[in-house]
């Protein structure tokens, strides 16, 4: 029986490209979920659910209410059940100045999503799938073209891993600090280069294979 992993995230799961690509999106085998699929092998189905601009729990007053990760997650989980693993990597968009959120508040938003997964009954036999919380790599000091949008984000982004680790321990789920294996691209300061996607996909595969 094959197993299923859901990858729920933002533009860095969708595959927003930092180098020239058609439609500014990496190809399926370049995106970290595609790398994850190759690393896990034929016994796994990997579902990509990335959306540009997605937050943990906030409607975006500029980009739209559909950017709220909590409003779609429930439907997404029911659509793809049964799930063996759910990987959630969100938080970068919560750093935008217009949300004015602390790292602790962003982690609490992640906690809402984790609780939704734990109580949805979408694991095998209606149980709880394994959950992996991934803190995004910190933004760089320089964020070309979006400096005002992400004003004050960099120091907060460095604190997300600690806040997420505490959250994961409290909820009894797995945790991975993406910043320990990759860094954000110098192209714009918050998206990922192809080599980062490759490294992240392999690191997440290793975490999944530990169990």
Protein described:
It comes from Bauldia litoralis. This is Lysophospholipase L1. By secondary structure, the chain is an alpha/beta fold. The chain has one domain (3-210): SGNH hydrolase (Rossmann fold, 3-Layer(aba) Sandwich). The chain has helices spanning 11-14, 32-40, 69-80, 103-119, 153-171, 194-210; strands at residues 3-9, 44-50, 85-89, 130-135, 174-177. It has a 5-stranded parallel β-sheet, sandwiched between helices. The radius of gyration is 16 Å and the shape is globular. The two termini are 17 Å apart. 46% of the residues are buried.
Number of domains: 1
Q: Report the mean per-residue pLDDT as an integer.
A: 98
Major sheet summary line: 5 strands, parallel
Identify the CATH class.
Answer: Alpha Beta
Q: And the CATH topology?
A: Rossmann fold
Number of strands: 5
Low-confidence stretches: none
Q: Taking strands numbered 1, 2, ... along the chain, how are they ordered across the largest sheet?
A: 2-1-3-4-5
Order of helices and strands: EHHEHEHEHEH
C-alpha Rg (nearest Å): 16 Å
Distance between the termini: 17 Å
The secondary structure category is alpha/beta
Helicity, in percent?
Answer: 25-40%
* Percentage of residues in strands: 5-15%
Task: Compute the number of helices.
Answer: 6
CATH architecture: 3-Layer(aba) Sandwich
| CATH H level, superfamily name | SGNH hydrolase
Shape: globular
Protein name: Lysophospholipase L1
Domain SGNH hydrolase-type esterase: 7-199
Pfam families: Lipase_GDSL_2
GO molecular function: hydrolase activity, acting on ester bonds
